Amino acid sequence: MEELSIDSLYTEQELISQIHNCIEKIRKEAEKRSSICRIILTGRSALHSSIARKGVLDDILKDIREDEEGGKQFVWIESIEDNTNPEIDRKSLLEREDFIGDLVKLFEEFSHDETKIAELRESLEPLFTSPGGRKLIETIDDEHFLDLIKKAEALCLDQLGGDEFS
């Protein structure tokens, strides 16, 4: 099973190219043996609406399988699963005057306001300094911390409505 994010992809051709890159990675890791793999597409992109159309992924899968036929060290893609979501229109969400708008504004503050980031880090400090926490949780740098904030925002929005925010 291989996860492939469509976050930075905008066309079907870019997706096909990334699937081929994924196949080459699998082939290299398999060390001269043939392989079977499932590809799970994740992430958010304008490409979501295209690949969500009936038959699009089936056609891509068929073409990729044809490309792999007859090779000595083939990689058979068993299936391609679509777990993608549409892009989030953050600008319009920031303008909303409801819970979702407040939530996105809060995440915006945590992402850009050094004071808010410091407050959040301070509130999480007991997790990192407790005996159990020290064993299980590594200290994270600022870049990773901001990435976790972005992932938390995406998870919240997905759980609260997902497609509604595109």
Please give a structural write-up.
This protein is α/β, with parallel strands linked by helices and 166 residues long. It has 2 domains: 2-82, no CATH class; 90-165, no CATH class. The protein is 58% helix and 12% strand. It contains 8 helices and 3 strands. A 3-stranded parallel β-sheet has the order 1-2-3. Helix 1 (12-29) links the parallel strand 1 and strand 2. The longest helix has 19 residues, at 142-160. It is flat, with a radius of gyration of 20 Å. It starts with a strand and ends in a 6-residue tail after the last helix. The model has no long low-confidence stretch (mean pLDDT 88).
Order of strands side by side in the largest beta sheet? 1-2-3
Residue share in helices? 55-70%
Tell me the number of strands: 3
Uncertain parts: none
| Element-level helix/strand string | EHEHHEHHHHH
Multimeric organization = single chain
Brief characterization of the structure:
The protein has 166 residues and is an alpha/beta fold. It is built from eight helices and three strands. A three-stranded parallel sheet has the order 1-2-3.
Task: Note the topology.
Blueprint: E1 2-5, H1 12-29, E2 35-42, H2 47-51, H3 56-68, E3 75-82, H4 90-95, H5 99-112, H6 114-129, H7 131-136, H8 142-160
Parallel strand pairs: 1-2, 2-3
Helix pairs in contact: 5-6, 5-8
Features:
166 residues; 8 helices; 58% helix; 12% strand; 2 domains; flat; 3 strands; alpha/beta
